What does this fold into?
Amino acid sequence: MKKHNLLYLILLIANTTLLAQALDFSIENKTTTATEVTFDVTLASDTPFKLGSGQLYFNFNTAAFGEWVIDNDAVTISYPDGSVLAQSNGFPLYTSFVENDNTASRFSFSWQQGVSSGTYPGDNISGAPAVLFQVSMNFAAGGEAQPDDICFESGEVFDDQTFTACGPASFGFPDCLNEPGIQLTDDDFECNLMFFPIDLLEFRAQARADYTTLLHWTTANEYNN
It folds into this structure.
């Protein structure tokens, strides 16, 4: 399955044109319990389009989550109602979801287009962030006391792996070999809101007579700060 998925992506890249269209991927709505961290992965674009196939990579703190999280069943990827990858129109718009460990501290997730672009009811990515899917990561033993850092991996090897929907324009199944989508090549990844480098207990600002401001703060923990 993994080899077929890689071949599919290679065929897409070999048969698509490139378009510098701004894509904004973000990690949002993080919640933390004693056993796991859950967050949404969202996508927005400066130009609306029908999302085709794609792949994303995530780095994480192994002290919190352990190593090889896919093989160790520490990651669950789900598609809540209203999320893009849960959409359907007679048939599911997306299929062949694949999760892989890339290294001990990075995993990838990919999805493939299940129907033709003509089967989509309309553009499903726009300027308003849309939830693609949801990720839950289980803490390793004692990991809940560690920084739950998770972020997208970005770089020449990892970027630009998102495609617009391939054809045909009629209702049915996709023919990405003969009617390929467009590879989008302007990724922006935002995960700074995922975690904060301190646990803040108190923060106060006091105006002074010399027109300066005196700041007071107290922290419980500080990470690399």
User: Anything to note?
Assistant: DSSP finds two helices and twelve strands in the chain. Helices lie at 2-14, 62-65. Residues 2-14 form the longest helix (13 residues). The radius of gyration is 20 Å.
